[in-house]
Amino acid sequence: MADEIVETEKVSELMSTFKKEVEKAFGKDIIESEINYGDLIIRVTKDGYRKAALICKDVLNLDYLSFIAGIDWMPMPTESEEGSGDTSQPAQPNEMTFGIAGSAGRFQVFAHVQSTSRHVGLTIKVDVDENELAVASWVDVYPGADWHERECWEMYGIDFVGHPEIRKLYLPGEFEGYPLRKDFPLLARVVKPWPGLVDVEPMPGDDGSEDEESE
Amino acid sequence: MADTPIIDIDPQTMSLLADSQMNLELDNGDMILNMGPQHPATHGTLRLVVRLDGERVLSADPIIGYMHRGYEKLTEYRTYPQITTLINRIDWLSSFANEVPFIHGAEKLMDVQAPDRAEYIRTILTELSRISTFLLFLGEMGLQVGAITPAFYGFRDREYVLNLIESATGGRFHPNFNRIGGLKDDLPWGWTGECKRVLDICAKSCDDFDRLVVGNEIFQQRTRGVGIITPEVGLSYGVSGSNIRASGVDWDLRRDGAPYLSYKDVDFKVWTHPDGDSFARYWVRLQETRESINIVRQLLDKMPSGPVMAKVPRIIKVPEGEVWVETENPLGQMGYYVVSKGSTGPFRTKIRTASFSNVSICPWLLQGIYVPDVVTVLASLYFILGDIDR
After folding, report:
1. Could you list the residue range(s) of the whole structural domain that residue A143 is in?
2. Looking at A92-101, A149-158, A196-205, B204-213, which range is the least confident one?
3. Residue A177 predicted with pLDDT over 90
4. CB 3.0–4.6 Å: which of B13, B119, B156, B229 could bond B234 by disulfide?
């Protein structure tokens, strides 16, 4: 047990020195930074995101690109009222809230890079303006960004400026719409509504007082 | 290669050419070859549009998405316990290993710690899925270079491991055994002894592969010096797992990542190979299979007693937060970025799969090699299409 505490302290010390280093390297491009479950999350400005790839690779020695993805913070539009017994999907809060390190608007792009020699990871978030859905591409620094950016483009409609050829990755060429946006409905549920709990039968000797035995 | 005149054809046109939907006379004698979508080397439906000059590959463009099931969207419509059923199907050869990072993510957000015994059993089953996945690879790789016998050995011995997984979890391929806070059940009576017996069979199987395949001169001629990934390029493409360790990068998340499962309690060696070619990737996976057997043996001897399930609420609600969890899966780094808003289901799940990045290096890697080697290089990268398309 004592070993574990020492270990945790060592990790948190490592993370706080890494955080200082990152803050120094990025300078005033950082809007917010936070340590979250052993992973450093920073939010950078749009200009900062363009430079971020170079800083990560050359200054911070983060040689491994894990992923680039998008997120849509808008709550999913639902038609059913709360408490109506609709079990088709988990009820999410109705107001728009943002995650760790915040966001300026609906769309964000986040990327995860890490170091194979120093064993630290960094998540970089950047806000994407809803009227001008574009951020810089990382392909010239991390060639592996190619497919991740193509996926993000087709799923969210976020353009990556400087990407050599942005085209559909998963979806067929004539597909319209951006499937991972929250206002894009899950078509299977539109065609056939979720039946909900249909096969619940009382067990023999069970008088339906199931809920009371919760732990 | 450098003085071959290359006319510019955009990938969309290339794809049409390969479909024979379009005719274009290439005046310099280049040929466009369509590999797949149903090719035996691809473990699913990967299509490769290859542009050839004689036997030499000028460019290769993988076309994916034939199996895209949209799991990232589906997770937004389901509760946490329901999602483990889905993510079982990402990398279907090592389903159990897929569940672990997601469950860990939810457990971290809920601040629940699974009991020691549950973590031990999880580690054992993860390593068993690694053994079964690699046994298939060790056999199949022989098949791709024209040796059929190893494939039968691989399938035969993998069956013992799958039976073992089935007897513990109830599912051969899709166990769905993890619960938030622990496991569905404890191990059945007598399982430990049976497991030790199977490990002995697998260890013998590894020796067989060592003699049959690694020591085989034809195999070495087909794989040595072919499809070399340099460490810098491999890392910038996000290549992970055994593929990058075969390029000499000493990086294994079981040892180097944030501590997870019970890997801190066992001694194991991380194998690397300096060459980075197809042979190195085979060799590293063979050694890692032996290492996994070693890990399971140690865990079976140290296994603590106690419950396998922590106290968790009946209806699982995960508090607001974000977490990134990564694990070393048989195919490489697998991770989930889970964003929760305090509901019964996640708000957004980014699924980072190993094969996706491992295959994205293909256009770079296949350039300039010969057609017969395309198959061996693809087989040595070892990807599962469900893991690319998710």
Report:
1. 2-185
2. A196-205
3. no
4. B229
∠ CA(B106), CA(A74), CA(A101), 5° rounding? 60
CATH value at residue A135: 3.30.460.80
d(CA B209, CA B119): 31
B-chain residues near A179 (CB < 8 A) = 70, 73
Nearest residue to B90 via CA among B75, B110, B106: B75
Residue B36's SS3 state is: coil
ipTM exceeds 0.85:
no
Amino acid making up residue A171: L
Q: How far apart are CA B355 and CA B86, in angstroms?
A: 18
Single pTM value for the model: 0.84
Record: contact B12-A173, CB cut-off 8 A: yes
Point out which residues pair with A68 in neighbouring strands: A111
Q: How far is B110 from B320, CA to CA, in rounded Å?
A: 9
**Residue A119 in contact with partner chain B when CB distance is under 8 A:** yes
What's the rounded Cα separation, in Å, for the pair A63 and B231? Answer: 10
Q: How close is the nearest chain A Cα to the Cα of B120, in Å? A: 17
Closest CB to A170 among B10, B65, B235:
B65
